[in-house]
Design a protein that fits this description.
about 260 residues; alpha+beta; four-stranded mixed β-sheet; 9 helices; about 10% strand; globular
Amino acid sequence: MSGEINELESAIPAILDRIKRDVKSVDMIIIHGSALDQSKFRPGKSDLDILVISDKHNYMAELPDLSDITGPWKQIDLTIRSRSVMRYRNFELSFIARVLCGRVIFDSGLDLGIETPDMANAKREVVQDLMRFAFSRMRFAGTDIHLSYDASWLIARAACIALHSFLVERDVDVAHRDLRWNLPKLIALATTFEPSLGKLAPYSEIIPYQIASADPDGLPYIDETPELLRKARMEKAAAFHILRSVKRTMNMKAC
């Protein structure tokens, strides 16, 4: 793998030069994904994932062409997002949380933590979208007549996302790797703001942490059995209870 690392290091100057030349007002450039994980990167098959933070980029414009910058990757997958993603990074948890574990190869030093009225409005929209997202995941999992890890994963994630929305409203960053899908920690943290949510603690035992914290692709499929179906129904009921309790606490309108 050391050869691939050296090739990546050699390519960084060209990548930086091309992006900063073609994108206006670059705030940050981050390499993330499998390129930083020796166990997951597959030379010639894996992409090199790069996120650019810029509020000045015209999103209708074409992305910089990096196809001539070669390396052990299949292609360079470039994404451009606004600064608000870094402030309210919980909006796209599965994507942004991975990015935050990435490697920053350029940082303009701009303070991205100042909350403006526009950002405050954006946060309110994020909170509402998170809650809707949680309920949509629960409904989708409920339509799956078969018990699979995909359905269990959606149910477990929905419970976590409900707590994310509560904590994002209070400016808590829940994108950290050790926290974002850890249901017991999320409940404990939410309880520090609203003691009544402490009653949700027993439900963290019903929805196993290993389901919420793992991606379904990395888990084996197990055929349904009466016992597994019973457990799935219990997990779904527990997740619904968490969603509704959080929603009631936040006094949100029905989704």
